Amino acid sequence: MSAWKDYVTAALLGSGKSALPALPSSLQAALGDTETMDAESRFLTHAGAIALWRRAGWKPLHHETAVVAAESESTAPLSRASMGHLRAMLAGRCLSALPEWLGEVARSRRHVPPELLPALLDRARQERVLRSLVISAGGQRALWLAAQNPLWSFGESALPESWETGGRDQRLAILRCWRAETPAMARAKVEEVWAAEPADIRTALVAELATNLSEEDTPFLERLLDDRSKEARRAVIDLLARLPASPFVARMTARVTPLLHFTKGGLLSRATLEVTLPGDPDAAATRDGLDPKAFGQQKILGEKAVLLVLMLSAVPLRHWTEAFQQTPEALLKAVQKSEFARALATGWAWAALRQRDATWAEALLDGGVAPHGEFLPAKPLLIVLPDAARAVRLAALLREGALTKKDTTRWQEFTDLLSTLPGHLPPALARDLLAVLRKECADGLPWHLRSLAESFLLRLPPAMLGEAAQGWPIDQEGVAPLVEILSFRHDALTALTPS
């Protein structure tokens, strides 16, 4: 449509700086005589006419497809009571219980009735965590509705076609799927686009390679040590440190091994681990990330001690137990009196996290040498432990008085640790948690802790909900909503249990 382009150009230049573009003859005839108008009015009249004329020239798409009916359901519909519970949650009552409830609907081989699916699918649009749950609990009709309405087609954002054109989250979701199913192809896709991506995207892309990380990724990651982005290089180093056979790990091991010397104890002497601090990093060491100034807390441990931490964090922990023929507990005991004890513990703790080494994590938690909190708090070591061992330690923290309503940070840390336990909490931990919550609620619960307390109660085993709803100071501020959650969960889950 050259006439429209001519008018756009004339508008940008100014109507008084160029002759008025000619209209198509058929449009000029329909418009009539405009010669008597002033220049501005004539220009705007012609532009408005040609805009309408362009729209009138578009032909609507006409595409008929037969709508295939939804397949028959193979599961039972919800009971009247359960439908009432769902309506209540969609109306805002105890909405935080919805994910668990939807999961139980699917497990009990029931499905949400069609009349409630649109509201549920709309809710899932807003909350990503609900999407797969809604599709599972909604049965065949939910799948059918999702296919009819693009707004409910939650899988569309991860279509492979969006890899080239999608936004950051879409592309990362696609890469995540590829990495889980075909790791080599996912790595190849990252290699193809690497040079053209901005630093923040490069950092995010390489972090996704942690899924199904293997020695096959080593050559690509080694090349990325020369990337121009410091953050991207850090992400690369974190991955290389998890690959014990990588050249990067070999270089770090060669640098740090001569710096530690273990001496066995005798009848009158204790075992010791002597430390020689590393020298200034050369170009090769700097390429491998040995730059103490890249970390904000180097002044606390000292720059040379930070270099030691970085080296230790990249060395397989079995290297030390094999080289010195000592257990982790014995090595930690040997360094207790060393002036570099915290640097050693910090480096080993970092390595334990990267390598998911539960034996070293247990030793570090019990060894009396705390890693430096500015670099690595001790609590993340709990995440490395098996679920049962982690639950026992969390219960011990509760009994030691780790949670008080004056310390919001501790509550948040504890909530984060609880989230690493799958499913419902073990009964012993749940009972200890209930005891603490009831005690802290004796004179009311501050508003800033209520959402955290609510998240605790959503993790209680269903079998405990009846007893858990008893014994609360219901007249105190902030307590009634907690009891409401317990009672509602109990009723909603009981209604799904076959009689």
From TrEMBL:
<protein>
    <submittedName>
        <fullName>Uncharacterized protein</fullName>
    </submittedName>
</protein>
<dbReference type="Pfam" id="PF18944">
    <property type="entry name" value="DUF5691"/>
</dbReference>
<dbReference type="InterPro" id="IPR043746">
    <property type="entry name" value="DUF5691"/>
</dbReference>
